[in-house]
Design brief:
heterodimer; A: mainly alpha; two-stranded antiparallel sheet; 29 helices; 7 strands; B: alpha+beta; Rossmann fold; Elongation Factor Tu (Ef-tu), domain 3; 7-stranded mixed sheet
């Protein structure tokens, strides 16, 4: 692309400039954009620098950020400006940066996302939203980044949130008790400075937690303090809420069916509904889902734009309500989190988020050792489970981690019933077609909606024939098939125009033997071989006929009843599957007359031109028999 | 001035020709638009945006589909917008009378539908899951070299069995498979006329407008034709004579299908989908035995029961988790699964008049092609037309009755009328009606000793003179030679049908309509006297 040396220099300069960028400084960012614009020949190097920078800003520093986040309410603000540079370049410069940055955008974005606090996440979400749209004021109608990229990120986020919910199941009784207490002792949260909101602000964790706790309680717990009481209400209300959300999402979808984010969101919601309907969640899980749903409901914005509450809400609320500060101290004293972060950060792997809430979950739920394991951010766990985050061989996770926590964090593996690849379309679109289906054939299993699988009937085959609606894969093979298919349409149309001039009729049905031997000729195979005039085509056309000569049966009744001048026998019309028309087997047109091929061969072989009747050779008889039979 | 009468006719004619403005129908995802179009009227449907499918077959965007004489539903997984407009009235062509009761029934729904509405609740999730479950089995079949799943669809009348068969076939085709779909319902034809049991491998898309599509014709077809293997079963009730005639034909069909499976790799992997007549699901005497026969002949692995708890529990008891009868079942431990499916709320009872009109339409289209006349729009540009308005020209000719070997079915219950072939009694048709509430047949045959009942239905050669009852009925041309034994003829697949337009008993001649020109093949003919019965006015 560019000479290595120059690129290195530019990259080095750029890197230094980037390192100076610590805050969301508009001037600096636009400056960096201009540099990028002037050095498009080094786009690859600059993109690399940007990616590395964004990645390296995280890691260890973020641990401190974590402290800030907890105690000083300071957002990390490290990755965000760098990502804003990416955003600015993508929008102001566009290609080739979008191409280079797009390649690893999934990792870059998800890496950053897992490490930043909720406020920053919100900003990232907002940014991501703009990436799905064309650059404002630009003539180009394409989105900033290709839909594949944004879609994969979005779906990963949605799934991660669902996964986070799932992980909360461990804290069952505990939370209910706490909640009960919380409600019973209003002073704990009554002085919440701000009205409860779904979206957390960088507020003190206590307040924040209380806010959410309040939120959860207020929405559907009002007046019901004991778990036994609230169970039935829970489910019905929850289903209603989800249905409402789905309806809204469907509406969106109906308005813009091709918008990937809408599809994703709808699918995620439907998956959630599916899980619910399977009724395999405990009441506690249900409750969490409910909290989640109610958080989404009023906002009625896409899930994406409201990311923060998901992992945070439930986790913060419980401990803070029960015993506000203790868990954190406890956690820090143990140093488990730090240890965990170190373990992963040194590997340059996506680190578990330095966020207290998620890490606290295990603490509050199970006082048992596998702190670290369960402490892994469900987001990451679920991403890993799906292989979306590269790597993480088991060792990098504390040994106790994998199985149980993954299973619980990964709601889509439901024991016994189903196992199929997660509904998230993998980053590469082409992979979507490889979905291995495994659905049990039993009355219970087939009632579970599997909207993800529907895509194997639709989205997976995105290449659509405009004439008949047939779908093809968007792969090379699919394109080739479609080309053949369009050829087929074209030829058929041509032949229909021809055929309109003559009378057509229904063919006889074939007998058993021919039916068993017959193979359906698809409309997507190469048509070579079905053409007229080509000797090879003719031999193909008449499969088992001993004679390879044939002509289309004439339409004119007089012509059709004209016998072979040599043997004085009439011609038998035979339906040819390949030609899709009536043909005369063993017939040859010489001048204006039609002879039996065998008769003609016989006659010309003898050197005689006299049309003597009844001299059909055994060959010709055989040929005609054959024609009669079929 | 004009006469009042003239005035009147003119105004009604005008009223009829004024096309209703096209209406748009928005479907949210997961809902479907159910519509009924009477015979004699047409409705055009166009997909404006989104995706939509009719019984599993996807509609192409911006193509106009024309429907007539149908009750169907367009479902959408993703939401869509349809444009519905009124099509041309079908004029009375070739003396064709639009089905008696429906002749003037132009509806008041969108686009002149008799009835149309949007439904949110459908069993499509279940049906799609059945497809996915079958796909799992097919993937397994492919990797292990076993046979693909053989599916039997059971349920009472109007439960949506054929619709489900279409959906499963369409989905399988859509993902590149090639199922063999078998119709065991003599009441409705699959790629053929009623009175037939048939099978066909579906590799290409099904016809949106024409149910299962078309069997081969002399000309090209915009939707690829499907090649059926057809057997004639000239009765409506498969339980006739305890299935004495039905069962051997089913066996023969199953044999051919398994022959195809053995040789056709695509078909083997994908398996079979078997549609059945509703009477088998109605709990009639003898139906279990026939079901058992089908299950074992086709080595069924999956039984889908729609809309009948009782049937489901019976099937569960008899078959669930029992080994299938396929040769490899013992080795591979292949077991039968019985699954219950919901009936769609869209299933409507098709009254006898509608069923009769459907049958007539099937017979008519066998000889004459698609009844929907070419519209100006489609005639102008071929590429824009997806309508299969192919007109076929059957050939009329006179035949000597004495030169033909025509066989007819004789049943013990009908023995009295056997002696009196000249009198064709249309009432016969209704006497063996399948309507629940029952006919006398099961009880009659029940009284017969078993040994005798297997002999009770035989083919008998029609003696001279030519019975006048032949007029307006169908003759099936079997592949068996005229001299074959009755049982051979019974079990033989058929080449096609002749329609007897006229009988001249004095001269011993009949005037027939043959789909294909030229000499009528010298084969044994079977008379569809009782079924599919009389079709009046096919030839003017």
């Amino acid at each position: 692309m560019s000479s290595g040396l120059a690129s290195d220099e530019v990259a080095e300069d750029y890197k230094n400039s980037l390192e100076d960028l610590t805050t969301n400084d508009r001037f600096q960012i636009s400056n960096l954009t201009v540099i990028a614009k002037e050095n498009t020949e080094h786009a690859m190097a600059i993109s690399r620098v940007l990616e590395n920078h964004i990645r390296s800003v995280g890691g260890r520093p973020s641990f401190h950020v974590f402290h800030y986040c907890l105690y000083r309410y300071t957002p990390p603000a490290q990755k965000l400006p760098a990502l804003y540079v990416v955003d600015s370049i993508a929008k102001n410069v566009g290609t080739p940066y979008t191409l280079f940055l797009g390649r690893n955008m999934y990792q870059t974005f998800m890496n950053a996302y897992t490490l930043v606090d909720s406020q920053t996440r919100r900003k990232l979400d907002e940014m991501l939203k703009t990436w799905k749209e064309p650059v404002p004021g630009s003539l180009d109608t394409r989105p900033v980044f290709s839909p594949e990229i944004t879609r994969s990120i979005e779906s990963a986020l949605i799934k991660a949130r669902t996964a986070a919910l799932q992980q909360q199941q461990a804290r069952s009784q505990h939370e209910v008790l706490n909640r009960g207490r919380g409600v019973a002792t209003p002073p704990g949260w009554s002085h919440t400075p701000t009205p409860p909101q779904a979206t957390p602000r960088p507020a003190p964790p206590h307040n924040n937690g209380h806010a959410h706790g309040y939120h959860g309680s207020a929405d559907s717990y009002s007046g019901r303090l004991t778990p036994t009481q609230h169970q039935p209400v829970d489910l019905a209300a929850l289903n209603r809420d989800i249905e409402a959300l789905i309806a809204a999402a469907r509406n969106d979808f109906a308005n813009s069916p091709l918008e990937p984010s809408v599809q994703q969101r709808l699918r995620a919601l439907l998956d959630l509904q599916g899980i619910l309907q399977r009724q395999e969640l405990t009441q506690e899980q249900l409750k969490l889902v409910r909290d989640q749903v109610s958080a989404l409901g009023p906002a009625s914005t896409p899930v994406m734009s409201n990311p923060a509450p998901v992992p945070n809400v439930p986790s913060i609320s419980t401990p803070s309500m029960a015993n506000p500060a203790q868990p954190y101290r406890h956690l820090l004293n143990q140093g488990t989190l730090a240890e965990l972060i170190k373990a992963t950060a040194t590997r340059q792997q996506p680190t578990p988020p330095p966020q207290p809430p998620t890490s606290i979950i295990p603490q509050s739920s199970s006082p048992q050792p596998p702190v670290a394991s369960a402490g892994e951010n469900p987001l990451i766990a679920s991403l890993r489970a799906r292989g979306l985050i590269p790597t993480v061989p088991t060792p990098s996770v504390p040994p106790t981690a994998p199985a149980p926590s993954l299973a619980s964090a990964f709601p889509f593996i439901v024991p016994g019933q189903i196992r199929y690849t997660p509904p998230v379309p993998p980053p590469q679109v082409s992979n979507a077609s490889d979905v291995t289906v495994s659905v049990q054939m039993n009355t219970a299993s087939i009632k579970i909606p599997r909207h993800a699988l529907i895509s194997s009937l639709y989205e997976a085959r995105s290449n659509r024939c405009g004439t008949c609606g047939r779908r093809f894969f968007a792969t090379e093979e699919g394109k080739e098939k479609k080309a053949h298919h369009l050829d087929w349409h074209f030829k058929t149309n041509q032949r229909m125009a021809e055929a309109a001039k003559r009378a057509q009729n229904r063919s006889w049905y074939v007998d058993e033997r021919d039916w068993i031997k017959s193979r359906e000729s698809g409309d997507d195979q190469s048509l070579a071989g079905a053409g007229e005039g080509d000797p090879h085509a003719q031999s193909n056309a008449v499969e088992k006929g001993p004679q390879k000569q044939w002509i289309r049966a004439p339409n004119d009744a007089a012509l059709r009843n004209t016998p072979c001048p040599i043997c004085q026998e009439k011609f038998e019309s035979t339906w040819s599957e390949d030609v899709q028309d009536w043909i005369w087997l063993d017939a040859v047109k010489v001048g204006s007359r039609v002879y039996h091929g065998s008769c003609y061969a016989e006659v010309t072989k003898d050197g005689s031109n006299t049309p003597v009747g009844r001299t059909g050779t055994p060959d010709s008889i055989l040929g005609k028999r054959k024609a009669e039979v079929s | 001035m004009s006469l009042p009468g003239l005035d009147l006719t003119q105004s009604t004619a005008e009223k009829q020709h004024a096309p209703a403005p096209p209406s748009q129908i928005n479907l949210s995802s997961g809902s479907e638009w159910r519509f009924e179009v009477a015979f004699g009227t047409t409705v055009r449907v166009k997909l404006l945006s989104g995706t939509a499918e009719l019984f599993g077959t996807e509609l192409a965007p911006s193509q106009t589909y024309t429907f007539s004489g149908t009750k169907a539903a367009i479902y959408t997984w993703h939401g869509c917008t349809l444009e519905v407009s009124e099509g041309d009235q079908l004029s009375v062509l070739d003396g064709v009378t639009p089905a008696g009761t429906n002749g003037v029934a132009k509806g008041f729904g969108a686009g002149g539908c008799q009835s149309e509405y949007t439904a949110e609740e459908t069993p499509m999730v279940e049906y799609a899951n059945v497809h996915f479950a079958l796909e799992s089995l097919r993937q397994e079949a492919k990797s292990t070299g076993k046979d693909g799943p053989r599916v039997l669809i059971l349920g009472p009348e109007n439960a949506g069995k054929t619709s489900l068969a279409k959906i499963l076939t369409a989905y399988a085709t859509k993902v590149g498979r090639q199922p063999i779909t078998v119709n065991l319902d003599p009441g409705e034809g699959l790629l053929s006329v009623p009175g037939t049991l048939s099978a066909a491998a579906f590799k290409t898309m099904m016809d949106i407008e024409e149910g299962w599509g078309n069997s081969p014709m002399s000309g090209p077809s915009p939707v690829p034709v499907k090649l059926p293997l057809v057997y004639f079963y000239p009765m409506q009730n498969p339980l006739e004579g305890d299935g004495a005639m039905y069962k051997p034909v089913v066996s023969k069909l199953a044999l051919s299908v398994s022959g195809r499976m053995a040789e056709d790799e695509d078909a083997r992997e994908t398996g079979i989908i078997v549609d059945t007549p509703g009477i088998l699901g109605a709990g009639k005497q003898g139906s279990e035995e026939v079901i058992n026969h089908i299950v074992s002949e086709f080595s069924i692995t999956t039984i889908l029961v729609i809309g009948s708890e009782r049937l489901y529990s019976t099937m569960m008891r008899s078959y669930d988790n029992k080994p299938s009868t396929s040769a490899s079942a013992a080795a591979s431990d292949e077991r039968i699964t019985v699954v219950k499916l919901s009936k769609s709320g869209g299933c409507v009872d098709r009254d006898p008049a509608f069923m009769k009109a459907t049958r007539e339409a099937q017979i008519r289209s066998y000889f004459f092609g698609n009844p929907i006349p070419s519209t100006a729009a489609s005639a102008l540009s071929l590429s824009a037309s997806s309508t299969t308005n192919i007109t076929l020209s059957p050939h009329a000719q006179q035949l000597d009755f004495s030169s033909l070997a025509i066989y007819s079915v004789s049943t013990p219950s009908g023995s009295s009328s056997d002696d009196d072939e000249d009198e064709y009694d249309p009432a016969n048709l209704s006497s063996d009606s399948l309507l629940p509430g029952g006919s006398a047949f099961p009880t009659t045959s029940q009284d017969e000793p078993d040994s005798q009942s297997s002999q009770s239905i035989t083919l008998k050669k029609l003696p001279s003179p030519v019975p006048t009852g032949l007029a307006n009925s169908l003759l099936a041309i079997s592949h068996a030679p005229p001299t074959a034994s009755p049982n051979e003829i019974r079990d033989s697949s058929i080449m096609g049908f002749l329609y007897v337009a006229d009988v001249d008993s004095d001269k011993g001649k009949i005037r027939i309509l043959a789909p294909v020109g030229g000499r009528v093949p010298a084969r044994a003919l079977v008379w569809g006297k009782k079924w599919p019965g009389e079709v009046v006015g096919l030839v003017g």
